[in-house]
Amino acid sequence: MLYDKNCLAGKRILITGGGTGIGKGLAHHMASHGAEVVIWGRRTQVLEEAAKEINAECGEKVFFQAVDIRNAESVEAAMADIWEKHGALTGVVNNAAANFIAPTKDLSPRGYEAISSTVMDGAFFTTQAAGRRWIEQGLKGSVVSTLVTWIWTGSPYVVPSSMAKAAVHAMTMSLAVEWARYGIRLNAVAPGPFPTDYAWEMLNPTEDSSVGATQADQVPMGRFGEMSELGNLVLLLLSDGADYITGETICIDGGHHLAAPSTFAGLNSMTDAQWAQAKTAAKAASDKAKAQRSV
Ligand SMILES: CCCCCCCCCCC/C=C/C(=O)SCCNC(=O)CCNC(=O)[C@H](O)C(C)(C)COP(=O)(O)OP(=O)(O)OC[C@H]1O[C@@H](n2cnc3c(N)ncnc32)[C@H](O)[C@@H]1OP(=O)(O)O
Ligand SMILES: NC(=O)C1=CN([C@@H]2O[C@H](COP(=O)(O)OP(=O)(O)OC[C@H]3O[C@@H](n4cnc5c(N)ncnc54)[C@H](OP(=O)(O)O)[C@@H]3O)[C@@H](O)[C@H]2O)C=CC1
Predict the structure, then answer these.
(1) Average pLDDT per block of 10 residues along the chain, 295 residues long
(2) Coil, helix or strand for 188?
(3) Among 22, 116, 148, 250, which residue has the most ligand 2 atoms within 8 Å of its CB, making it the best to mutate?
(4) CATH fold for domain 12-291
């Protein structure tokens, strides 16, 4: 363990999308360093299982709420509930996202909105609901958003995600200045490939769509990132040790985007029939998750 196992004692951190993948890994990392953690997602059962699994190892540290972050009223109600039942948060991780690969010309308005509003509106509603309370109560706070290197490079075939993540990057820099005087810091991380189940089903649904996201040899360091490595970076940004860092987005990708294989440009060769297959495969994964949603 790089950091002392109690270095986050006294911290209370909300992680959106904390029931799966990176969010779940971060919840485990923060809880195992002494923080109390609240996780949000739309599937009660998935959240409950994640909390149970982490708590079996770390004690009763992780709590959950089923919240759709696209809905500002639900976010506000859930935030009020945290403050009332647990106490003030010290940190927020904007991690929830939606994404799938698709030719931009074929995206429907609802498809665009499903991705862009989850990433952009969700991060804004969550940040504002916590920030407003910190400001009213004179409390310090730290916000960390999970972005992606496409904020610098863009990427074809995931245009709503690239656009919305760039917007959260802009929110990070803007509010870092607006809220510095309240002791509220905003930073972000831009991970390269960290294989997770749902993201890979959305981003690499068929053989033909495999162009690098699942190929570790495309990363200059020759391997994918490990959860503990991302966890250590997010932990630092959430901790008092990073009190003078704000408005920054830190890349953690083993050199991936500097070597340039970090976008979906390789999908240019896919045919319409291959795109139709990719959509069917991604939708099957999505529909399975949707059947489990509680909100
Ligand atoms: C080359 C290597 C590059 C490597 C680069 C770096 C490493 C990787 C970087 C990864 C960065 C970011 C990753 C992520 O964000 S992954 C997150 C993945 N997780 C999720 O998406 C979880 C949440 N997902 C969902 O909720 C759903 O899957 C969905 C996104 C579909 C949204 O669900 P919702 O219920 O809101 O929406 P609907 O199902 O009703 O659909 C809305 C409209 O969207 C259309 N749609 C849905 N799926 C597809 C598809 N696969 N293709 C095209 N269109 C799709 C759907 O038809 C609806 O539109 P219409 O009503 O008009 O039909
Ligand atoms: N994996 C990777 O290589 C990379 C990932 N990232 C970023 O990391 C983050 C996590 O991705 P990853 O763990 O891979 O993917 P996951 O699909 O596992 O995580 C996305 C999470 O967001 C939740 N979510 C989606 N929509 C909503 C909503 N409307 N309200 C509340 N929760 C929602 C999902 O839960 P539910 O469906 O139950 O709501 C799910 O837990 C994302 O921001 C992604 O863009 C960035 C770079 C690389």
Answers:
(1) 93 98 98 98 98 98 98 98 98 98 97 98 99 98 98 96 98 98 98 91 84 78 96 98 98 94 89 94 94 95
(2) strand
(3) 22
(4) Rossmann fold (3.40.50)
